[in-house]
Design brief:
The complex is a heterodimer of chains A (about 575) and B (about 550). Chain A is an alpha/beta fold. Chain A is about 35% helix and about 15% strand. Chain B folds into 4 domains: about 110 residues, 3-Layer(aba) Sandwich (Glutaredoxin), CATH 3.40.30; about 210 residues, 3-Layer(aba) Sandwich (Rossmann fold); about 80 residues, Ubiquitin-like (UB roll); about 110 residues, de novo design (two linked rop proteins). The chains are: A alpha/beta (about 575), B alpha/beta (about 550).
Chain lengths: ~575, ~550
């Protein structure tokens, strides 16, 4: 059923159940919003989207107000403009307005809105929110004085991730989003996923910026600098340079990193392939022994921390494989150091990750199996973009180049690690062929693809029927884990990714990352997979060589030393 | 059944309790015991009689003599003189005596004469802790009649015909609200009695709950029957210990006697009530914030629509009614809508309970027909302004209401007349101020309340109330200028027009009302003159602490 209403005297038809905001969009009218987020429940608290609705005494928030047949909506009357101006000025009165020193400068929704509404200052009495900044984690920085109380982060933490560390505290003008008990994030069961940051309209939550460390390493002649790039970066970085979401920019990414001055530009996809070999064998072993099933993937550091805090008794179910990032670091300072003749002390490994939790993972004490930290510093997609801009690299002018070898050689199976269901699909491609010795007819396991919160599939591997489950977003992960806890899990193998959509929707990705954008990055990921010559991890020639020259065999002694890890039960 | 030759009714309402009514009662009982009168004289704890100014007080029947401002030491004399010798203790008497030496009837005293007690009919007369007392006073006949004689639709029609409007502040037609909930889909439906009375200077619901808790149980049961609700919740302000205790007691008694639970009064209608204590936030008086609070969430209003009638508590159809609204229901059923309409005015039928406070001789709880003038309330019932001072203003409806000036003394007190003067009946608070007060200083003080109570959810209220408070503070400090005035007006307009709930929408009312009715006095501040000599004297903004 469609209904007809007017927006500024012009007729527009929308589906029943639409909001006034939807109708305005359809009518080609942009309504300013702040608390509204397309993937979240309507909050209607910022009031910036107010419009006049016929028959209503007061102004109504377009984001929440249902469009009704015959309704007349006015979006830019003097009354509406005055209210919006006053509301924005009130927000600015309790906001530091220190734009130049803010990481969100020029990308801040409040700043952009002030600009659009032609507001440069606030006539209202200044209010300073006396809440200290939280710098307690290697991943996230919280600056509550910048908070505008839109509560998008509260929703992300509580509803998207099912954690609920962030909540609204105090009342009146002292109202502010706080952590449980006002404890620093580092002392809480925060998994550092950065989904709060991803939805913050201002700079109240940002990543810890590590770009200076990388600049210093690049400038240090003694350092042999390696960079590894996660699968999800190549389908998102272009957005930082104004490209539409869904573009694949692998070639430009590689040449840009070379221009920054990295000695070698490698690919985390290589160790993603390696992960499949190790984890695939681990799975087959557990399947044979019937122990600690379901096996659960361990690539996602936010998920790992979540499991340690919330399901400390089920850690035996986690694969002992390190994440591809950490496998890369461990090999860079052992295998690569040996084969390239570098002293591991001088090798400096930088990761470019779609993830804020990776910064924490790199600092875990168990991640130093080469004696040195496996990974020296982790940059998010956004930090890398910042560096490229700082270096004066013109995105449009970049040529396309290829990764260095051998740690830059990969397959399509490595690429799809970036999307939810990808690790599972990659594992199935390999496990099937290893077990049956037959070639897979169809490589695409579409049942595990897409944005559905929990997905499952049944696969015949030889004589064995295997049931696999895939969850992304910790709210969904919790559901699968509770099944495991009750002993009712129907699965043999589970893939869990912390962030909605998987790594392509991570907390380190370009802002905005909405579900619509996630879909486009996912589509690009599978496109990248299809365009690869090799699409199964066990076909990766560099991985084969690695086993021949160095690791000897999957789950072997060296693998255990360098590629596998253990987990730490933590409190809630 | 036991008979007593005299009954001593002692007010046990919260206002008298503060003044020590419990020790008065203990002292009285001790004296009675000393004279071995315990089997002849019955001492009864009652609810509030309303004349709080005179408390602690007691009424002795059969003579109907009221003694007030009592001390423990007065008990000897009352027992030996009045109860043993039959002589009045004139120095403690509230009433005068006539030539025959009889006390003038209590209801003929100026304080009671112009009152019309429908909601408060049992307050001060029965022991609220005894179900028998309520039934003896005719209680639960309306519920029995409703269940026996009328279909739910007929009850709603009667309440509509009576023209009863919500007594919580907004004045929405109760029958209409009920019909929306009845028509909504979803089971179970909830009936919530809003007893989260938080408006400064308002204590009517508290004294109704304390004085006649079964009246609320009965009103709720009838309402629930009408709308098809099987679950009732009384959400009582957390500080109202006695109200909570008495309501819990009443609900238990009703349940034990077949008035609540499965098959109410032997009918096929099931209904039970739960008493729920609030946690102190003013905003939880707003119906959707109240619902959030019951659900265990932070007390904040929800966006409407959907309205609670459609999606309320736990997402199910819910009707939220104020205590006083529900207290009117049994009388309407018992006496007919026509009778109800004989009270009050055309558009505001019935009576209204007010709490009279501030610079007034007789502060307390009163119930008057709608449409009575402010002058009658202040000078006839209230006994005028004390200390020979002059009336300056009355704030109606609590902090979120507006103020009325001397020229409004003859304004009829009803929903529409007050609304047309930028004020409201609101919660029934009537704060009377004499001419020693400065309007701007008072306004500044009222705003401080909102600054404290804004829940923080929406921007105009969260940021706007403190901004308004500071701007008015600037004026009381003698630093206001023309730009500030314009800013105040713009801010007030935006807050009224764009806040999420009534708190933010009404927070500017004290300011606008002061500007409207006392402009010369406000304007004088711009040139450094505070006509009441309250502002500037080196204190700056005195409410800043």
């Amino acid at each position: 059923m469609t209904i007809e209403l007017t927006i500024n005297e012009r007729i527009v038809c929308v589906a029943e159940g639409s909001t006034v905001l939807d109708a305005c969009a359809k009518a080609g009218v942009k309504i300013p919003t702040l608390c509204y987020h397309p993937d979240q429940q309507i909050k209607a608290n910022c009031r910036i989207c107010l419009v006049e609705v016929s028959g209503q005494r007061s102004l109504q928030p377009a984001c929440a107000y249902p469009a009704q047949s015959g309704m007349a909506v006015y979006t830019s009357t003097p009354r509406v403009r005055e209210a919006r101006k006053t509301i924005l000025e009130l927000m600015l009165a309790s906001h530091p307005r220190a734009c130049l020193e803010c990481p969100r400068n020029l990308k801040c929704e409040l700043q952009l809105l002030a600009n659009e509404l032609n507001i440069s200052e606030s006539p209202f009495p200044r209010y300073e929110r006396q809440v200290p900044a939280d710098l307690s984690t290697p991943s996230l920085k919280r600056v509550p004085e910048k908070c505008i109380n839109c509560r998008r982060c509260v929703h992300a933490c509580l509803v998207t991730q099912g954690i609920g560390i962030l909540y609204t505290s105090e009342r009146g003008q002292e109202t502010v989003v706080q952590t449980v008990g006002r404890e620093p994030l580092g002392d809480l069961s925060c998994v550092l996923c950065g989904q709060c940051l991803q939805v913050c309209p201002v700079g109240a939550i940002t990543e810890i910026d590590d770009t200076d460390k990388v600049w210093a390493a690049l400038a240090d002649p003694k350092k042999h600098t390696l960079v590894q790039v996660a699968p999800a970066i190549r389908v998102a970085l272009g957005e930082e340079f104004g490209q539409d979401p869904g573009g694949i920019v692998t070639g430009k990414l590689v040449s840009a990193l070379r221009m920054l001055g990295f000695d070698k530009v490698f690919d985390t996809d290589f160790t993603a392939d390696l992960t499949i070999i190790e984890e695939g064998h681990e799975f087959l072993e557990r399947l044979k022994e019937g122990e600690s099933l379901p096996l659960i993937t361990s690539c996602s550091p936010g998920w790992i921390k979540f499991a340690e805090h919330n399901f400390p008794n089920l850690l035996r179910h986690l694969s002992t494989c390190k994440s591809p990032q950490q496998m890369f670091g461990a090999l860079a300072k052992t295998y690569y150091a040996q084969s390239s003749g570098h002293n591991p002390r001088d090798i400096y490994v930088v990761s470019v990750m779609p993830c804020t939790a990776k910064k924490f993972e790199a600092r875990r004490p168990e991640m130093q199996d080469s004696v040195y930290p496996d990974v020296d510093v982790v940059l998010t997609t956004r930090e890398l973009a910042r560096m490229l801009k700082q270096a004066g690299i013109v995105w449009e002018a970049l040529a396309e180049e290829a990764f260095d070898t051998p740690l830059g050689i990969s397959t399509g199976a490595g690429v799809i690690f970036g999307a939810t269901g990808g690790v599972m699909e990659a594992a199935l491609r390999t496990v099937y062929e290893v077990v049956t010795g037959e070639e897979l007819g169809r490589l695409d396991f579409t049942a595990v693809r897409g944005m559905e919160g929990i997905k499952e599939a049944d696969i015949e591997v030889g004589k064995q029927a295997i049931r696999v489950g895939v969850a992304h977003g910790l709210q969904n992960a919790r559901l699968l884990m509770e099944q495991v806890e009750r002993g009712e899990s129907p699965y043999h193998f589970i893939e869990i990714m912390c962030c909605p959509g998987g790594c392509i929707g991570g907390g380190g990705q370009p802002i905005p990352t909405t579900n619509a954008i996630r879909q486009k990055r996912i589509a690009a990921t599978y496109l990248a997979d299809e365009s690869m010559v090799l699409r199964k991890s066990h076909q990766n020639p560099a991985v084969t060589t690695l086993y021949e020259e160095f690791l000897k065999r999957p789950l072997g002694l060296r693998s255990h030393e360098l590629l596998h890890t253990h987990y730490t039960p933590r409190t809630k | 059944m036991k008979y007593y030759r005299a009954h001593v009714l002692i007010c046990s309402g919260s206002n008298c309790a503060i003044k020590g009514c419990q020790t008065i009662k203990d002292a009285l009982v001790a004296v009675l015991n000393k004279h071995e009168l315990q089997s002849e004289i019955k001492v009864v704890d009652t609810g509030c009689l309303g004349w709080c100014e005179q408390g602690p007080s007691m009424v002795i029947y059969p003579e109907g003599v009221m003694y007030s401002r009592l001390k423990n030491s007065d008990m000897d004399e009352i027992v030996t003189e009045h109860l043993l010798k039959g002589r009045f203790v004139h120095r403690l008497m509230t009433q005068s005596t006539d030539t025959l030496g009889l006390a003038s009837p209590l209801n003929m005293t100026p304080f009671f004469q112009k009152q019309r007690r429908v909601v408060l009919k049992n307050c001060g007369l029965i022991n609220p802790e005894r179900l028998e007392d309520y039934i003896h006073a005719g209680g639960y006949t309306a519920l029995a009649t409703a269940l026996d004689k009328y279909a739910p639709e007929e009850i709603i029609a009667m309440v509509l015909d009576a023209g009863l409007r919500g007594r919580g502040g907004a004045g929405f037609l109760t029958g209409k609200k009920w019909s929306y909930t009845k028509a909504a889909l979803g089971e179970p439906k909830y009936l919530i009695c809003n007893a989260d009375e938080g408006e400064p200077g308002t204590f009517k619901d508290r004294l109704i709950l304390e004085g006649d808790p079964h009246l609320i149980v009965e009103g709720m049961a009838i309402a629930a029957y009408a709308i098809g609700a099987s679950k009732g919740i009384i959400y009582v302000r957390g500080e109202y210990d006695l109200s909570i205790k008495r309501m819990e007691q009443a609900v238990l008694q009703a349940r034990e006697n077949g008035i609540l639970g499965e098959g109410v009064l032997g009918s096929g209608f099931n209904f039970d009530i739960e008493v729920c204590a609030g946690a102190g936030a003013y905003v939880c008086g707003e119906e959707t914030a109240l619902i959030e609070s019951i659900e265990g969430n932070r007390g904040e209003p929800r966006f409407k629509p959907p309205y609670p009638a459609e999606k309320g508590l736990w997402g199910l159809p819910t009707c939220v009614n104020n205590v006083e609204t529900l207290a009117n229901i049994p009388a309407i059923i018992e006496n007919s809508p026509t009778w109800y309409r004989s009270l009050g005015t055309e558009n505001s039928p019935g009576t209204k309970v007010f709490t009279l406070t501030g610079n007034i001789t007789n502060s307390g709880l009163i119930e008057v027909p709608m449409g009575i003038t402010l002058r009658e309330i202040i000078y006839d019932i209230g006994g005028g302004i004390p200390q020979g001072r002059r009336f300056k203003m009355a704030q109606t409806g609590g902090t979120s209401g507006g103020c009325l000036a001397e020229e409004h003394l003859d304004l009829p007190m009803d929903y529409d007349s007050l609304a047309s003067h930028g004020s409201s009946l609101g919660s029934g608070a009537l704060l009377i101020m004499d001419d020693s007060h400065c309007i701007l200083d008072l306004t500044h003080c009222f705003l401080k309340f909102f600054v404290h109570e804004s829940c923080g959810k929406c921007t105009p209220c969260r940021e706007g109330t403190p901004a308004l408070y500071k701007l008015i503070g600037k004026m009381t400090a003698g630093q206001g200028n023309q730009d500030d005035l314009e800013l105040i007006h713009r801010l007030a307009r935006t807050m009224q027009d764009s806040s999420l709930c009534a708190l933010g929408q009404t927070a500017p009312v004290p300011v606008l009302s002061a500007f409207r009715h006392f402009w010369p006095e406000v304007e004088a501040h711009m040139t450094g003159n505070c006509l009441a000599h309250k502002c500037f004297s080196g204190r700056g903004s005195k409410h800043d602490h």
